[in-house]
Amino acid sequence: MSYEEDIVSDDEMNMIDEDVATDSEAESLSDSDTENEITEKLAEPTKTAVYNRAGLLDKLQDISWPEDVPWTHKLTVEIDQGQAVDVNDDLAREMAFYTQGLEGTREGYGKLEAMGLPFLRPSDYFAEMVKSDTHMEKVKSKLLYEKKQIEESEERRKARDNKRMAKEVQSQKMKERAKQKKDDIESVKKWRKQRQQSGFSEKGKDLDLEFGNGKSFQRGGGAKKRPGVTPGDRSGGKGGRPTSRMNNKKREFRDSKFGHGGRKGLNKQNTAETTNDFKGGFRGGKASGNKRQKR
Amino acid sequence: MGKKRKHSETEAAAPVVKNDSAPERPKRTLLGWKDKNEDAEKSKPASVSGFRNKEKVLVTCSRRISYRYRHLMLNMVSLLPHCKKDSKVEAKSSKGATLNELIELKGSSSCLFFECRKHKDLYLWMVKSPSGPSVKFLVNAVHTMEELKLTGNHLKGSRPLLTFSSNFDKDAHWKLLKEMLTQVFGIPKEHRKSKPYHDHVFVFSIVDDHIWFRNYQISVPHNESDKIARGGLDKMTLIEVGPRFCLNPIKIFGGSFGGPTLYENPFYVSPNQIRALEKRNKAGKFAKKIKAKTRRQMHELANPLEPDEFADMWKDE
C-alpha cells in the first residue's frame, strides 16, 4: 500500500469497490455465457464457412437418378412436419418422428396398393429377421418381467387398501354392537320399571312386546345357539377367562390413551428428519434430553 | 461382366420391344389371372426406361472403434443387404486413397465409413464413389438395435419406405443430402438379397440442423397377403426397431474422400473444442479463488477498521 492510496477519499474508495464488484459480476456473467456455449453449437454462424450453392446443385445433378424413375425404385415419401419441433423435449421429438413415419407409411402403402403390388408379408412367409430369435426372447422376457413387476406392486397396494378398509369396517361393527347392547339393556330397564309401576300385572303382554321382535341380550344376535355352553353362561367362552378386552371400559379407555396393537416397528426406524438431526450429538450418554425426541 | 452387357443390351432394345409386345398373356397373381391393361402398361415403362439401381455400399470402420459404434455399424450392415462389409481401415491422413482403392476393388458405388476418434467421437463418412460428393457427419445419440427397449423386428432385407421431413427441400445442401441418403439407404429394387415386402420404414428428419434417423417396424392387422383389412390403415402402428442416431453434417466435399469443399457447417463446434472449453472452465476455479482472496486482502488493507475506542477500557483496572 502506497501513501497515495491511503489518502484516497472514502467516496473514491466506494467507487473502486463498485468497479470491482461490477467487474466480478461481468466475469461471472461471461463465465455463464461460456458455459451456455457448451451446447455443441455456435451462437451465430461463422462468417468464413464455405457455401458453394452452384457446386452443390451441380453435384446433385451429377448423382441424381433420371427424372422418370418410377417411384417403386425410390420408395421415398416427403412428410410435412408442421411447426418446428423442440429438440430438447424428448417426448415431443420422438412423437414427431413417429407421426412422420406413420403418415409416410400410410402414403406409401396407399401408393403400393394403388399399383397392385404386394407389400404385406403373408402370415405363412417365414424368413430371416433382423433380430435373432434369441434376442427377441430376451426382449419378451424383459417385457414380461416389467409387466409382472407392475402387477405385483398393484397387488400390494390393493392389499394395503383392503386392510385399511377392513379395519374401518371392523371398528364400525364393534361400535354398532356396543350400541345395540346398550339399547337392549336400556329397554329391559325400562320394561322393569314399567312393570314395577304397574304392580307386576299383565306380565305376558309386555314380555311379548319387548322380546318378540327378535332382539336379545346376547351378543351376536340371540338366535344363535352356542354348542357346549349352558344357556346361562355369560362368561363368553372359556370358563375362567375374563371378559373380552373390548367390554372392559377401563381397558378400552386405556387402550385409546396409550395405544394398543398396531405396528411398533416404524416408531423405532429412522426417518429423514432423525437421520439429519445431530442435535443429540454422537455421544449418546450425555445427550439424554433428545432421546425421546422422535415420539 | 456378362450381366452388365446384358443390361446395356436391354436398354438399347427396350424401346423397340415396347411397341410389338402389346398382346401379352395376362399376369398370374395369387388370386387368379390378372388381365388389367392398366397394370400391364404401368409395369412396362419401368422396364422400358432401362433404369436399374445397382447401388453397392461399402461399409467399414476405422481401427480402434469402440464396441457401441461397431455394433451400430453391424446394425447398418444387417439393414442394408446391398452392402459389403470390409475389414477395418487405419484412420490416417492417407485413408482417403486407401478407401477409394478399396471401393474400386469391391466394385461398389458408395461407401459408409465409420471413423472413431479418441474412443469417444464417431464420424461418419458418406461417399458416392467415383466422382460423387462425400459428406462427413458427426454422429450423436447412438442407440443400437441390441437395446431391449427397442422391441420391433422385421424381415432382413425387406425394402424400407424412406420418409423425409419436408425441410429437406429447404436448401441446396439438404437436397443433396437427401439424394445421397435415398441412394445409400434405399435398397435396390429386385436386389437378389432383398425380399418383396415392405414391413419397415426409415425416418429421416431434420431437427435443429441435425438429421435424425429412426427405423420402425410397421405392424398392420391383416388377414390376406396384400389386402389390408377395412380400417387397417387406421389401426396401423409402428414399433421401433432401431438403431437410432443423429447426424450432424460437418462438411461436404466435391470428390470422393476429398476434393473441394462445397459446404461447411457454420454452426459446427468440434467435440474436442467443447471438451477443452469445459476443462478450461473447470480449471479457472482455483485461479478465481486466489484472485478473490487477494482482492479481499487489498480491500481490508485499504479500509482499515477504526480503532476500537473501548479496546483498553478494562485494562486500567
From TrEMBL, chain A:
Segments of skewed composition (Polar residues): 267-277
Annotated Basic and acidic residues bias: 146-167, 173-189, 249-258
Bias (Acidic residues) ranges: 1-37
UniProt main location, coarse: nucleus
Keyword Calcium tagged: no
Intracellular or extracellular location(s): Nucleus, Nucleolus
Record's keyword terms, sorted: Coiled coil, Nucleus, Ribosome biogenesis
Nucleus in keyword set: yes
GO cellular component: nucleolus
Location of region: Disordered: 1-42, 146-295
Biological processes annotated in GO: ribosome biogenesis
Source organism superkingdom: Eukaryota
InterPro entries from the UniProt entry: Ebp2 (IPR008610)
Database matches in Pfam families: Ebp2
Entry's family note: Belongs to the EBP2 family.
Protein name: rRNA-processing protein EBP2
Organism: Cardamine amara subsp. amara
TrEMBL record, chain B:
Annotated stretches, region: Disordered: 1-47
Entry-linked InterPro entries: Brix, BRX1
Ranges in coiled-coil conformation: none
Domain Brix: start-end pairs: 55-258
Biased composition (Basic and acidic residues): 21-44
One Pfam assignment: Brix
Gene Ontology CC: nucleolus
Taxonomy, superkingdom: Eukaryota
PROSITE patterns in the record: BRIX
GO terms for biological process, alphabetical: ribosomal large subunit assembly
Main location: nucleus
Subcellular location: Nucleus, Nucleolus
Keyword vocabulary terms for this entry: Nucleus, Ribosome biogenesis
Similarity field: Belongs to the BRX1 family.
PANTHER family per UniProt: RIBOSOME BIOGENESIS PROTEIN BRIX, RIBOSOME BIOGENESIS PROTEIN BRX1 HOMOLOG
The protein's name: Ribosome biogenesis protein BRX1
Upper lineage: Eukaryota, Viridiplantae, Streptophyta, Embryophyta, Tracheophyta
